[in-house]
């Protein structure tokens, strides 16, 4: 199982970025997959999680309305579209997943951060 995140970079406040997470070794159909971030000196926090089988989503309150998750089935890829970025969004963003999910929701996994597979992060810096 591999998760490869990309798309980070330097962007001005108010700008946008789209992160990609390419998953291999498992099918997104049976998983919960999501984005997390960790800013310098802070604990890791959940951004958003998605359970494709049920279509359910979880977004952290501070990111609702600005961040959107989407999926490309053919590419087994999850995207995070980030709009109206703020300096406090600066962090390393990680993609994570758990497969063979049956009962628990995207919210369950996101709030507990108990996903099995973690990719290397991609740096997002929001600065003028």
Residue share in helices? under 10%
**Quick one: how many beta strands?**
11
Based on the structure, what is the oligomeric state of the protein chains? single chain
Distance between the amino and carboxyl termini? 37 Å
Describe the structure.
- This protein is mainly beta.
- Helices cover 5% and strands 48% of the residues.
- It is built from one helix and eleven strands, in the order βββββββββαββ.
- The protein has one helix spanning 106-112, and strands spanning 2-6, 9-11, 17-24, 32-38, 45-51, 56-59, 67-72, 77-82, 91-98, 117-118, 122-126.
- Strands 2, 4, 5, 6, 9, 10 and 11 form a seven-stranded mixed β-sheet that branches.
- Strand 4 and strand 5 (45-51) form a beta hairpin.
- It is globular and about 45 Å long.
- The termini are far apart.
Task: Itemize the secondary structure elements and their pairings.
Layout lengths: L1 E5 L2 E3 L5 E8 L7 E7 L6 E7 L4 E4 L7 E6 L4 E6 L8 E8 L7 H7 L4 E2 L3 E5 L2
Parallel strand pairs: 2-11
Antiparallel strand pairs: 1-3, 3-8, 4-5, 4-9, 5-6, 7-8, 9-10, 9-11
